[in-house]
Structure formats: structure tokens, C-alpha cells
Design goal:
The chain has 383 residues and is mainly α. The chain has one domain. Helix 6 runs antiparallel to helix 16. The radius of gyration is 21 Å and the shape is globular.
Length: 383
Amino acid sequence: MSSPHDSPAVASEPYHNRLAEVARLFLRLGVTAFGGPAAHIALMEDETVARRKWLTREQFLDLLGIANLLPGPSSSEVAIYLGFKRAGWRGLILAGVCFILPAALLATLIAWAYLRFGSLPHAAGVLYGIRPVVVAIALQAIWRLGRTALKTITLAVIVICTAGFSLIGVGPVWLLLLSGSVMLLIQQAGRIRTRLSAFSFAALPAAGSALSISLTSLFLVFLKLGFVVFGSGYVLLAFLRADLVVRLHWLTEKQLLDAVAVGQFTPGPVFTTATFIGYLLAGAKGAAIATVAIFFPAFILVAVTGPFVSCLRRSPAIAAILDGVNAGSLGLMAAVTLFLGRAAILDIPAGVIAVVAAFLLFRLRINSTWLILAGAAAGYFLK
């Protein structure tokens, strides 16, 4: 059995070997991929394009562009797409589960400690060392993907404009739609000009009790979030606050902020914030239900669109849209990296960690997973 998108070299490999490779890679990323979606994308690009040659950078950019247009956790959707690309339908499921499960289990453990001891475990030192490394990883990904995506001056302008508008608060979905629309208009205008010239170019305190919350209602709330939330964990925060704090009164403001903090400093998808909240609201069953509900739409959306990704590039109109969306995605990554840099590099030692990590990535091509672990150890000893 093989994916319809495999190259002959890939298709010749035993299928069980490809499944095992998918499981090993995404389980490791699920344990070590700190830093949020931009860092996750950078790690996946390094592992699947630069190191393993599963696909070209242009194919990776197309997957990223489509994932950014879908609701749900974009980095998890890219992982699911990559699993499908490498090992078909079983690879699709395996990649998603292996990437999500470690973070979900860790979030559940932290939620247990949170309820037992009344606060989050101290992780300031580890985060201090990891964040500058994440900035260096994101910069490397932007550089490598940019060399493939920026085929024209127009695309470079889209990257700059998208980054600028993102920095002043314009929503990512609108920016991606605008980027794709601009390139479509340019492509259509070019076709019109060509025709005119006759040429053809071919347990909860205060907020409520876990026992009073229906598991069914918990599932439906997080299922809805999985289908409607675009963008990063910060976008998810706004939706969670509107539903769980303001409308349903299931959480307090402090509990919500603590839940989002757990999603930020644990490896893997930021959307495992839902796992933490589910445990607070309804124990282990609540954690499992909230996790399944918020990630289930990602599997469905990727399963529906995955078989058609390679076909989309063949349409001139859709190819133009993808070029625009890919440029917009790079602009959003640049803006997020700037925010990460401002939050991560607060003093000279953090700056030194970032510079050393960037040197090791760009010049010596050290595996980013080892750099993250080294950054965590350095931060722990420094703090």
C-alpha cells in the first residue's frame, strides 16, 4: 500500500518501514517541539524536506498554505498532511496521533498537579533557554522557505506587507485571503492581457463544579472550537474566553490564562490547552474528550483535502492563489518570529543563546531537537 503522491523512490520502500518512520519522527517532535506553530513548522520543514527528502520545498509550502487556510491547529494539520504524503491514510492518522498525544498526556499530568498543589510547576529557567533557540529555528525556516516561495518581486512585497499588517493586529485569516486574492487578480489580469495581444503561454473553584458539566456539552464546545478557530493559541484564547469564561462561566480568568500558559510551554500543539481545561472541568474523562473534540476536525479536513493537494498546483488560478497564500504565510511567520524575539531575548545571556543557536543551525546544520534540549539545559543552569 502506498500514497498516491509518493515518488517512485519513496514508493519502492516497504510500507511498514514508512509507517515506522512516520511514528518515530512525529513522536519525537511531539516530545521536543517547543515554541508554538512557527517553531513546529520550522522543525517539520527541517526534518521532512532538508533531511529526509520526503517532498520538495514547494510541496511543503503548498501544504503549509492550505493548512493556514483551514480552521484548527495549523502545525498539527501540517503534521497530518505530511503523514499522508509519506504513508497514505494510516500515515495520516499515525502522524497526527503521535504529534498530539505526548503534549496531551503532559498537559493532563500538569492539570493534575495544578489541582493538587494550586499552581503551575516552575518552568521559568527551561523556558528562558528554549525561547531564544526557537527564534533561531524560526529564522532558519523563513530563510529556507523564502528562497523557494519568493519567485517574484510581487511575492516579496506580499511577505513584507503581510508581516507589517500582522504586527498592527490585522487577523491572519484576512491577510492570507487577501494575499491569495492579490495573486489571483494579477494572474487573471495577465491572462486578459495575453489574450488581447493574441499570445498564448502555455474540580473547579468558584467557576463551577466538574460534576455539573455535561461531558456531551464539553465535547460540543471543543468540537465547535476545532471547526471555527483559525491561527495560533492567542486566537484560541479569545474564543475560549468568550465561551468558557463569559458565556458558560466554567472557568475564571486566572484559570484560563494558566491553561494557555500550559499550552505555550509544553511541547507539541498549543491546542492541548484544551486537554488542561478538560481535566479541570471533568477530570481524566474531560481531558480525553476535550482533546479528541478539538483535534478531530483537523483530521477530517486534512483527509478531505489531502488527496487533492498535488492536483491544485496544476490549475493556473489555484497555483496563483497558493503562491500568494504561501507568501502571506511567510509574512505571518516573520511577524510571529519578531514577537517571539522580543519576548525571548531580554538580556545578554539570552541573546548569546540565540546567536549560538543560529550559527549552529545555519553553518553547521545541527539538528534542531538537540539545540532545544541544549537551550533548556542552559536556561535551567542560568536561572
